[in-house]
Each structure stands twice: as C-alpha cells, then as structure tokens.
Amino acid sequence: MSATILLWSVTLSQWMLVAAMGCAAFRVIRGPRAQDRVLGLDALYVAAMLLILTLGIRSASTIYFEAALVIALLAFVSTAALAKFLMRGEVIE
C-alpha cells in the first residue's frame, strides 16, 4: 500500500512541477523587465532541479541526485552573475 501511495504522490508532484516550469517559462518569455526574467529563470532552475530529484526517487538511481546538485550549483552562479550584471552593467571587473 505504501509503495502505491509513494508512486502516486511522486507522479502528482512531477505533474505539478511541470506546471510550475510552464508558469516560470511564461514569466521568462513575457517578463516586462529583466529582473522578472531573472526571477522566472531562477524559478525554472528550481523546478527543474526538483523534477530531476523526483525522477531519482522514482527510479532509485543516484545519478539523478548528482545531476540535481550540478543544476543547483550552476543556477546559483548564473543568478549571481545576472544580478551583478543588472546592477553594474558588467560581470567581471
């Protein structure tokens, strides 16, 4: 019984994460300002990372967890670089 509940809950969370990725992609495309686009891109990274984690839970493979860690690190660096670019106009001083 608990395996069935886990499968249904992971499937439901995957569909919700896909919907969240769609909303974030809409914000990236239609954002009126650059700050809105950066925020949408950050939300897209988080949703993609969580979707990969749920795939790892579903398949019981550790490679998905490592891929999610790489996405989290790249998302942090890119968000910091984009924020610095929007504040100062340059990334490397």
From TrEMBL:
<dbReference type="Pfam" id="PF04066">
    <property type="entry name" value="MrpF_PhaF"/>
</dbReference>
<keyword id="KW-0472">Membrane</keyword>
<keyword id="KW-1003">Cell membrane</keyword>
<protein>
    <submittedName>
        <fullName>K+/H+ antiporter subunit F</fullName>
    </submittedName>
</protein>
<keyword id="KW-0812">Transmembrane</keyword>
<dbReference type="GO" id="GO:0015385">
    <property type="term" value="F:sodium:proton antiporter activity"/>
</dbReference>
<dbReference type="GO" id="GO:0005886">
    <property type="term" value="C:plasma membrane"/>
</dbReference>
<keyword id="KW-0813">Transport</keyword>
<comment type="similarity">
    <text>Belongs to the CPA3 antiporters (TC 2.A.63) subunit F family.</text>
</comment>
<dbReference type="InterPro" id="IPR007208">
    <property type="entry name" value="MrpF/PhaF-like"/>
</dbReference>
<feature type="transmembrane region" description="Helical">
    <location>
        <begin position="63"/>
        <end position="87"/>
    </location>
</feature>
<keyword id="KW-1133">Transmembrane helix</keyword>
<feature type="transmembrane region" description="Helical">
    <location>
        <begin position="6"/>
        <end position="26"/>
    </location>
</feature>
<feature type="transmembrane region" description="Helical">
    <location>
        <begin position="38"/>
        <end position="57"/>
    </location>
</feature>
